[in-house]
Design a protein that fits this description.
The model has no long low-confidence stretch (mean pLDDT about 90). Helix content is about 45%, strand content about 20%. By secondary structure, it is of the alpha/beta class. It has two domains: about 110 residues, 2-Layer Sandwich (Nucleotidyltransferase, domain 5), CATH 3.30.420.40; about 170 residues, Exopolyphosphatase. Domain 2 (Nucleotidyltransferase, domain 5). α6 packs across α7 and α7 crosses α13.
Length: about 300
């Protein structure tokens, strides 16, 4: 079954067109796109999606709609996450996505987002027998899902994302040490308050999905061009995350745009991303994390095909 999934996130808008084998749950990518659209700019402070941000997403969706049509997809799904959940005009924006682009647009709750992320992260791999945490660092929130085998036991969406935390704490270029300390403290407090000790303690393995983690893996390997095959399954050490943070935080945004392996569109938020990733690993006492290309896009594709529906 050929399906299309669009992820309209706080920081980026992404598209996956894939063939899903309903009998095996295998997902075969036909096309994948990612565009930094920063829909969540100003939502944390102002409470609404801006016209400029909405315009960037709509322009991208017009391109994606043409790609979907050219691939004869049988079904589609557009998932809208933290920025749209939080914005006063989020429902109106979702309706526009639905009406203007003929997309099955759904504003996901944090719980639904976490469940789809876990479903995607577990695809194409042996089911873990040890308690595993899937970490999805987004623009407005970070999802944590703890489970084993194919079951997601604990899941939570916490209000700490790369756009939200950058806007709250980083006001200098490059960031001042005091700003980084404030960002790290806010993140640590948010994570530890939202993640009970009894959930964190048994976890022995971590999987990190989405742009911060894949960017870190690409930067560490100096990938140019980006190579998903070398990013998927890459082991990223906490010590490496700390080194990347120190390196990137010492640069101006203009210099970060030239870093090999980093999408220039992520230069404004990657410092916050490294802080969030490091604090996520520390919360669970992990010294390393497995980076995965399989995320909510894969989860959405599987759900469209009726695999793992619940």
């Amino acid at each position: 079954m050929r399906v299309a999934v669009v992820d309209i996130g706080t920081n980026s808008t992404r598209l996956l067109i894939a063939e899903v084998d309903r009998s095996t749950g295998a997902v075969e990518e036909r096309l994948r796109r990612s565009t930094v659209t920063r829909l969540g700019d100003g939502v944390d402070a102002g409470g609404a999606l801006s016209e400029e941000a909405v315009g960037r997403v709509l322009h991208t969706l017009a391109d994606y709609r043409a790609l979907i049509d050219s691939h004869d997809c049988e079904a589609n799904l557009a998932v809208l996450t933290s920025a749209v959940r939080d914005a006063a005009n989020g429902a109106a924006f979702a309706a526009r996505v639905r009406d203007d682009f003929d997309l099955d647009a759904r504003v996901l709750s944090g719980s639904e987002e976490a469940q789809l992320t876990f479903l995607g992260a577990m695809s194409g791999r042996p089911a873990p027998t040890e308690p595993t945490v899937v970490v999805d660092i987004g623009g407005g929130s970070t999802e944590f899902v703890v489970g084993s085998r194919r079951s997601a036991g604990f899941h939570v969406s916490l209000h700490a994302g790369v756009v939200r935390m950058s806007e709250r704490h980083i006001h200098s270029d490059p960031p001042d040490p005091e700003e980084l300390q404030s960002l790290a403290l806010d993140t640590r407090t948010t994570f530890l308050e939202g993640l009970p000790p009894e959930v964190r303690a048994p976890v022995s393995h971590g999987i990190a999905v989405a742009g911060t983690a894949t960017s870190a893996a690409a930067i560490d390997q100096e990938l140019d061009p980006y190579d998903p095959a070398r990013v998927h399954g890459y082991t990223l050490m906490l010590a490496t995350v700390d080194l990347l943070l120190a390196r990137l935080a010492d640069m101006t945004e203009a210099r970060r745009r030239e870093v090999v392996g980093l999408d220039p569109g992520r230069a404004p938020t990657i410092v916050a991303g490294m802080v969030l990733l490091g604090e996520a690993l520390r919360a669970f006492g992990l010294e390393e994390v497995e980076v995965s290309e399989h995320d909510i896009l894969y989860g959405g594709a599987l759900r469209l095909a009726g695999v793992g529906a619940g």
